[in-house]
């Protein structure tokens, strides 16, 4: 596998679950730290319960279920985990600096979707997409650098 493809794999693993990208990179302790932090914030914010309600058409109940004091931390933790896995996947090749605006856009859109979910038809699904799609676009565009 090419060194540049390692970045894409690390980013995809981190998108699946923050911490998996670090474990893929061989940073086991850091990966477990991300896994623990993500699970704690996810549990405190009640994100999984709200996703379940949202996917079953109970959008108002999903929004009432979320603990926003902790939910606002989730996009940042999620994006930092992905960016860290992406940047540390290849040791001697610096990452493309042009990818960072995509991560910044993802953080901004994710946070805005947490603040204004009532304006989205599927708040949690579209909020998650607002985080993942810009990152995937940036990683795909700059996959050869």
Counting DSSP H or I runs of 4 or more residues, the number of helices is 9
User: What low-confidence regions span 5 or more consecutive residues with pLDDT below 50?
Assistant: none
What structural class results from the helix and strand content? mainly alpha
Q: What is the alpha-carbon Rg in Å?
A: 16 Å
H/E element order = HHHHHHHHH
Mean pLDDT: 83
Give the biggest sheet. none
What global shape is seen? globular
Sheet-strand content, in percent, reads: under 5%
Total strand segments: 0
The percent range for helix content is over 70%
What is the distance, rounded to the nearest whole angstrom, between the alpha carbons of the first and last residues? 15 Å
What oligomerization state is this entry in?
single chain
Explain what this protein looks like in three dimensions:
The chain contains nine helices and no strands. It is mainly alpha-helical and 145 residues long. The model has no long low-confidence stretch (mean pLDDT 83).
Short description:
This protein is an all-alpha fold. It is built from nine helices and no strands.
Question: What keywords describe this structure?
Answer:
single chain, 145 residues, globular, 0% strand, mainly alpha
Compile the SSE list and pairings.
Blueprint: H1 3-16, H2 20-24, H3 28-45, H4 47-55, H5 59-65, H6 68-71, H7 74-87, H8 100-115, H9 123-141
């Amino acid at each position: 596998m090419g060194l540049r493809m390692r970045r894409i794999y690390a980013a995809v693993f981190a998108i699946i679950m923050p911490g998996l990208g670090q474990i893929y990179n061989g940073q086991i302790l850091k990966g477990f730290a991300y896994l623990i932090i993500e699970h704690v914030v996810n549990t405190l914010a009640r994100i999984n319960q709200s996703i379940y309600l949202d996917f079953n058409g109970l959008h108002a109940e999903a929004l009432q279920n979320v603990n926003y004091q902790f939910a606002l931390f989730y996009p940042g933790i999620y994006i930092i985990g992905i960016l860290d896995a992406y940047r540390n996947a290849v040791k001697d090749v610096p990452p493309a600096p042009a990818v960072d605006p995509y991560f910044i856009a993802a953080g901004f859109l994710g946070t805005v979707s947490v603040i204004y979910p009532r304006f989205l038809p599927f708040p949690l699904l579209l909020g998650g997409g607002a985080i993942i799609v810009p990152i995937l676009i940036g990683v795909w565009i700059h996959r050869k650098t």
